[in-house]
Automatic annotation (TrEMBL):
Record Gene3D superfamilies: 3.30.70.2740, Vanillyl-alcohol Oxidase, Chain A, domain 4
Name of this chain's protein: FAD-binding oxidoreductase/transferase type 4 C-terminal domain-containing protein
Gene Ontology MF terms in the entry: flavin adenine dinucleotide binding; oxidoreductase activity
Source species: marine sediment metagenome
A Pfam family per the record: FAD-oxidase_C
Cofactor: FAD
Keywords annotated in UniProt: FAD, Flavoprotein, Oxidoreductase
Residue stretches making up the FAD-binding oxidoreductase/transferase type 4 C-terminal domain: 2-217
Length: 221
């Protein structure tokens, strides 16, 4: 983006995500501690070729392990297969998950992923992450077995630490999917009480009987 290249898509998969989908579908993906970045361009073919060369040079400069360029739609689809089939491959790690979509500044993305792995090791839980690197929106998946009370407690602690990390990095705990019920207990980590009270009063003004999506985000008396 600093080089004035604006892809249509920049998708990210951490090493644990790559490992899951590679083993599940037997895909030809690099092994080891590698992160996958899918970058898609569109527009005039001459400009696509020019930008693709620039992107390859940037990736090589940053120490990429491997760079693959799709030459046709078939090759592109093979690369996208990994991203599209990622979520169904995660249960091989644990049967249940806490799925959160968080956002951090793009400049903090590498730091966030590294510290996310540290949290996973601390609690002995696999926490694969993937998402939209272009806007810093990352889907965090805390994999655990809810029938194991100790592991369920660890998952809850890990979630709180992850959300605090997001706030510390000047991010937001809710990216694409809103607050709803699952993030309701944590919204106060990001929005101060005075802000929540103002939002509650606005909600009451438009919905005095509390019949519109009741119980979501906050309780209205």
């Amino acid at each position: 983006i600093k080089e004035k290249i604006v892809p249509t898509t920049i998708e990210f998969m951490d090493s644990l995500s790559v490992e899951c989908v590679r083993d599940q579908l037997n895909l030809d993906l690099p092994k080891g501690d590698v992160t996958l970045l899918l970058i898609e361009l569109d527009g005039d073919q001459v400009l696509i070729d020019r930008d693709a060369r620039k992107i390859e040079a940037l990736c090589q400069k940053m120490g990429t392990v491997e760079f693959r360029l799709a030459r046709d739609k078939g090759e592109a689809e093979d690369l996208w297969k990994a991203r599209r089939n990622l979520s169904p491959s995660l249960p091989q790690l644990r049967p249940h998950k806490i799925n959160q979509d968080v956002v951090v500044p793009r400049s903090c993305l590498a730091d966030f992923v590294t510290r996310l792995s540290d949290i996973g090791r601390k609690h002995d839980l696999p926490i694969p992450s993937f998402g939209h690197a272009g806007d810093g929106n990352i889907h965090v998946n805390i994999m655990f077995n809810r029938d194991d009370k100790d592991e369920a407690a660890k998952a809850d602690k890990a979630l709180k630490e992850i959300l605090k990390l997001v706030i510390d990095l000047n991010g937001t705990i809710s990216g694409e999917h809103g607050v709803g019920i699952s993030k309701k207990p944590y919204i106060g980590m990001e929005i101060p009480q005075i802000g929540l009270e103002l939002m509650s009063r606005i909600k009451s003004a438009f919905d005095p009987n509390g019949i519109l999506n009741p119980g979501k985000i906050f309780d209205v008396n």
